[in-house]
Amino acid sequence: MLRSHFVNLGVFSALVGVFFAFLTQTSSKDRVRVALILGGSMIILSLIVAYLMFPFPLR
Amino acid sequence: MRIVLREDVETLGRRGEVVKVADGYARNFLLPKGKALPATEGNLKTIERQKRRYLVVRAKEKEEAEVVAGRLAGVSCTVVRRVGENETLYGSVTAADIAECLEKEGVVVDKRRIQLDDPIKSLGIYNVPVRLHPEVQAVPAQAGRDPWIPCALAWLVPGLGHWMLGRRTRAGVFFACVVLTFCLGIFSDGAATLIDRQQPLSYLATFDNLALGPLDIVARYRSYGRLSYRLPADEGDPLHQELTRSLRKRIESVTYEYGSTFLLVAGLMNILLIMDVYDIARGRKD
User: Fold this and answer.
1) Would you tell me how many other CB atoms lie within 10 Å of the CB of residue B262?
2) What is the pTM of this model?
3) Of the candidates B173, B184, B269, which has its C-beta nearest A11's C-beta?
4) Which tens digits make up the pLDDT trace of B96-118?
5) Which terminus of chain A, N or C, has less C-beta within 10 A?
6) How many interchain CB pairs under 8 A, A with B?
7) What's the CATH fold of domain B2-64?
């Protein structure tokens, strides 16, 4: 369905970010903040890890 | 500049503490507002005396607050309002209404201590925290609230437990998050996990899948064409061969790993939701 790694990463981060924002926060402002921080940091950290793993052989 | 605090300042410290702050902050805010004094020997002695008196008063206040909190633990309030479409109230229920209702129940609480961010505007059961003292918070119990029914509903349909407890917005968002994650897992050729004795972690993963309730049944039918939870140990078993064949088809898909991860995450989300519903129903969380 979603064959792009990045789209998968983006959708996954967004869903998890929104989920935890609503689970842990009560005010709308805090929810937006937590969702953006969580989702954003998941994407950024994944890209960093992916960049560090780039030199690894595929097989 | 070294100053001694005359009252609790959230960002600096408690009454009587000596803290170091920027000169401008002290001169322009803390000293003129009477929140602090320069930390001279004389001031320190005066504050220390005041602090001792204050601690005695505060301990007494805390004791009284704990007594009220104990009484509030057994109180539930019912506020009657006319209701329109979609269970929306005509008007709203405010902190003053709750204080009045509590008074009828024999507990007098200042309405400013009732922590209601926004007036209640829709039908439901709400846990409203009451900050009786900086160190004492009470949450009125929901009389007769059995946490197991909302938990069971949360397991059956993600978000339904929150809906039942009056958290309608959260319920909708949780339902959307879990179901969307589940659907992405299914349509990305993810497979529900089967218990395999040779792989101990498969027990955990299967338990996680089971947390999705009826959605797990859908996942299993879609993954294997039947409702199977266990991979027979005997490789010659026709069921073993059939399940392995179905799984192999899934594994060949490029998105199998993504799909299975999405399914596992949907299950984990629902476990958290069930635990959250339990806490809300027990009054441990708003």
Assistant:
1) 27
2) 0.60
3) B184
4) 888 888 888 788 888 888 888 78
5) C
6) 43
7) Ribosomal Protein L9; domain 1 (3.40.5)
